[in-house]
Structure formats: structure tokens, C-alpha cells
Amino acid sequence: MRRTVCGMEIWINPACSKCRSAISLLDAEGADYTVRRYLEDVPTEDEVREVLERLGLEPWDITRTQEAAAKELGLKEWPRDAGARERWIAVLAAHPKLIQRPVITADDGTAVVARTEEAVRDALSRREPPSSTPL
Question: Which of 69, 72, 76, 113 has the most other CB atoms within 10 Å of its CB?
């Protein structure tokens, strides 16, 4: 059984400079997070749906349409409507390299595509405060 995305997790491709920058910033801020190398630990269609829900986006919004696989599949011509949504989700699960990266799922149940420092800081701002221990 696959795990459900929860807490702070970052989906990365280690070869991606934006992913490495996001990890560096998370580390500098002392964030507690889990790394998921999503090209190796490929998300299921259900996990893609969950991340999309957390992002508040549609699958075509997080698709890397300039990738060779996207061009081969003709994704730029695919309809971008409710009727095509499941087809897009299936292609993202089948070709995880097409998923925009990095994606950070935040503790509060939301997520961000963390391609900028501002987006990473946005995810960090959604962390649950540390629990205080009574004296």
C-alpha cells in the first residue's frame, strides 16, 4: 500500500537546480521534511490527485510541456477541461518527469510548486508551530 502525502514532503529530481535550491533553503531554515525522489518513487494517480487538490491546481497547470515526452504525446494540443482531467493525471503518473518540480506539501494540508525562494518560504510559513512543553 502506498503512503498518503502528509506533513512536509518535497518531491525532487536531484539533477534539478531548483530542487537543490529548495532543499538548501529548507535546510537553512531547519525545516523537518521528507525527500521524495519522485522519478524513482513514482506517485500514483491518487497521489497526483491529492497533490493537485492541495495545490488548488489542475494537472495541466503542473505539466512540463517542453519535455520531450510531452511533445511526443502532443500535450499542448490536449483539451484542458474537466473531461480530460483524468487523462492528464494518468499521463503524469505514467511519466513523472512531466511533473513540475519541486513540489512541497505543507503541514497545513496545502502544497506549493517551489520553483522560487518565495514559494519555498510560503511553504515554510505553513509549518505547524513547535509544541510548547509546560514548565
Answer: 113
- Say which CATH number the domain at 35 has: 3.40.30.10
134 is a domain residue? no
Total domains present in the chain: 1
Strands in the chain per DSSP E: 9-12, 34-37, 103-105, 111-113
pTM for this prediction: 0.87
Give bridge partners of residue 12 from the DSSP assignment. 37
Residues 89, 44 contacting (CB under 8 angstroms): no
The pLDDT tens digits of the residues spanning 77-132 come to 999 999 999 999 999 999 999 999 999 998 889 999 999 999 999 999 987 655 54
Residue 36 and residue 13: Cα distance in Å, rounded? 9
The sign one gets for the Cα dihedral 58, 63, 69, 72 is positive
